[in-house]
Amino acid sequence: MNASELLTNLTQQGIQLWADNEKLGVRSPRGVMTPELRQELAKHKPEILAFLRGNDLSDCSTSTSPSDELTLQTIGRLIGGFGSQSTTEYKQPIVDPQVMASKLKVVFRPLPKGYNNQSIIKFREELELKLRNYGVQIEPWELATTEFHYDIKIPFFNFKKTFNTRVVKAGTDAVIDIERPPSLISKAKEFAAERLYEFYSHFILKNQKLSVTRIATLIGWAVEHAAKYIEDPTNTQVITLTDLDPEFTNPQIPYQQKIGLGLNTLVRTFSEIVIGVSNDKISILNMNLSDSIFPQDELDGFVLKSLIPKIFVPIAPVLLNRFELGQYDPQASVYAASLVTLSKELAPTGLFPPGFKLSELIKRKSHRDIINVIVNGRTGVSYGFVAYAEPPQYIGAKEITENEWEGLATVKGFSNDQVRQNEINRRYVKLKIGTEYVFKQIPDIWLVSARSGSNKTNLSLDNDIVRIGLRDRLFLQLPQGIDQAKVDIKPSYDLYVMLGMALSAALYTPELIRDGAPMVHFHGYPARDWFQDNEYCVGVHNPSVPCGTYESGVFNFLGIHSLSSQSDGKIALVSLVEPDHGTNFIAPNLEYLVARLKAGCQQGKIELGGKHFVSLK
Hints:
Blueprint: H1 3-12, E1 16-20, E2 23-27, H2 35-43, H3 45-52, H4 72-80, H5 97-102, E3 105-108, H6 118-133, E4 137-139, H7 141-144, E5 145-154, E6 159-168, E7 174-178, H8 184-204, H9 212-220, E8 237-243, H10 255-269, E9 273-277, E10 281-285, E11 293-295, H11 299-312, E12 323-328, H12 334-345, E13 356-357, H13 358-361, H14 365-374, E14 380-381, E15 385-389, E16 399-400, H15 402-406, E17 409-410, E18 419-421, E19 427-433, E20 436-441, E21 445-450, E22 465-470, E23 474-479, H16 495-508, E24 517-522, E25 524-526, E26 535-538, H17 550-561, E27 573-578, E28 582-586, H18 590-602, E29 606-608, H19 613-616
Parallel strand pairs: 3-4, 3-7, 7-8, 8-9, 12-23, 26-27
Antiparallel strand pairs: 1-2, 5-6, 9-10, 10-11, 13-14, 15-21, 15-24, 16-20, 17-18, 18-19, 19-20, 21-22, 22-23, 24-28, 25-29, 27-28
């Protein structure tokens, strides 16, 4: 057995490996790691460490591309800005749902006594079976939980109480529960806990920020949702099963109204994911606010392509510590000005509904404080993005010969077969386009984007636009003179998607981005018969990974790449579908993109929500 075969074998059995300097980290389900496998690991340790560090990636078992294409690890490093950073900061992207499943650990919270909703009971049993069949580790409640004791002390009142409970251990990816309507007693307890928390936060802590775990401790004794039973709320998602909401899933209800319904459902159940169940249908809801509906007889596809990816890569913002921070002058940027034009031209389409302030949507202070920590200080939510990619920036030759390639140096963290650099540290990549290999410079990518939470159809040139850069690391430039204390200015959740599209276009379809390219994302889909000549649609059958992950960026990178052999250099626009999320568009011409989107909306061929998604399949 060679190193590649061994890695494939271990992955299929749910064994996780990672490189920690010169050590090989191993995490295995109980009873899987045999003495024979340990001997094989020791035998192939050098090759496996090199593989995990990205120095020999040609046999990646998780790649969806042919072996002579860029591996997923290379793509992930490029769009994630991990070019020169240590391996410990980088996690290789996984885009195969079955591999995702093999790495997940899930626990079902026991049903309460007397629970008799037969539709949900049946679905719960079938869901557990499907997850097991796909390789998800289902832990019994007793083994997945541990005893937990905590004290609550409130000065001035001389209040002290010790609580004993069981919590789900850290390392569990999700807890699956059912919605439990609160009783009068539980409502009274929650009211008392919230008043206690408000007092403690204001008078004792002087409004200092607390961790999610500490907030959950202070209010957990009074609540009945599954979040009460989680040791690490930042890494264990709550999935709640409930009756399917006929209003939220009604295709005639405006999407703007569905945003409010969906967010209130997530807040009410205190869940990251809510699955609606009826006798014949299933719906799934998370912060992407998809209104996707699945027939019960498509449960296999629902679990593999929709649920498992959402558990494996939860929605998360890109943290500011990932960036090298700086400033730019938006008044001097023609692309920032073009982005403002794009935003205002799209206003009549209705594709970018107004966002919500979390303070208005979430009434309880404890819940607001928890969400505030999870979303990295963002004070609002909005749906969709508008961005404008600048022309790629090169220094020296854009393309070199194979002989010149052979003389280049290695790049730390990358396969020497795929990425190399010259004497001035410009990186080049070996690509297969059609039947030929080419050697192209990896350009610097810059784009301007609406800040997270802004009004996407009425951008302020001075306050709403950030500039993002991608070289061997990520850059974030804020508008000059911006007062961050007054303006919540943070990059979009969909940052990796934008970077993935822009970099892939520069490498594979340069005509698409040569003069810059407008990019938009909204939570809806175009109908199949809307497309015209030289307009392309890709990604319909991708797993529904959420935004905020570079797995989503990888899928968009691969989507653009797939056009290199079929577009003949003529691309009017590209629609990159993200199932259960919406659609990304990129085009070489602002006026053309706006005109086509407006026409689609006027003809009823483009709408928010999932109405047209089925036609794309």
